[in-house]
Design goal:
Largest sheet: 5 strands, antiparallel
Distance between the termini: 13 Å
Helix content: under 10%
Number of strands: 10
CATH superfamily: Jelly Rolls
CATH topology: Jelly Rolls
Radius of gyration: 13 Å
CATH architecture: Sandwich
Length: 97
């Protein structure tokens, strides 16, 4: 995925990732709005059965895939099929995947 933000990550921003067996787990804390795009190039290069679960701890945003949009807020959970194009647009948030 390609991350975008209006500027570089600030000191309070943090991305932590690890693996638990076959599952990758990460936490992102961002002080600025931003997002990510899953492009056709990403889809071609990835395993066909790759999925992403997001849990928003704070903030909110929109996840778009296949012509649908889900507006998410604190406590919401999303499930994204990474074999398809997707777009994340988030407010300053703390979220885990």
């Amino acid at each position: 995925m390609r991350r975008w933000s209006p500027g570089p990550l600030d000191v309070p921003d943090r991305l932590v990732a690890t693996e638990v067996g076959a599952v990758r787990v990460g936490e992102l804390l961002a002080s600025k709005p931003g997002g990510a795009r899953r492009t056709a190039r990403h889809v071609r290069r990835a395993a066909p059965e790759l999925y992403k679960v997001d849990v928003l701890a704070h903030g909110g945003g929109v996840i778009a895939q296949d012509g649908r949009e889900a507006r998410l807020g604190r406590g919401d959970l999303s499930f994204v099929d990474l074999s398809r194009l997707a777009r994340w647009t988030m407010s300053p948030v703390a979220w885990s995947r």
